[in-house]
Amino acid sequence: MQKQVKDFIEKVLQTQIVLEKPKDIALGHFATPVAFSLAKELRKSPMIIAEELVSKFEDCEMFEKVEAIKGFINFKLSKVYLQNLSKEALNANDNFAKSDEKKEKILLEYVSANPTGPLHIGHARGAILGDTLARVGRHIGYDITTEYYVNDAGAQMDMLGLSVSLAGRDFILKEDVEYPEKYYRGEYLVDIAQKIYDAHGAEIFHDESRFREMADFAKEIVMKIIIADLKDLGIEFDNFISEASLYDAWLETKAVLLENGSLYTKEDKLFLKSTLHGDDSDRVVVRENGIPTYLAGDIIYHKNKFDRAYDHYINIWGADHHGYIKRVHAAIEFLGNSADKLEVLLSQMVQLLKGGEPYKMSKRAGNVILMSDVVEEIGPDALRFVFLTKKSDTHLEFDIDKLKNQDSSNPVFYINYAYARINQVFKKAEKSFSDVIDISYEKLNDDALNLVYESLLLPSILDEAFSKRDMQKITDYLYSLASSIHKFYNEYKIVGSDEELEYLKVLSLSALSIKVGLNLLGIKVKESM
Question: What is the rounded CA–CA span in Å between residue 296 and residue 331?
Answer without folding.
Answer: 9
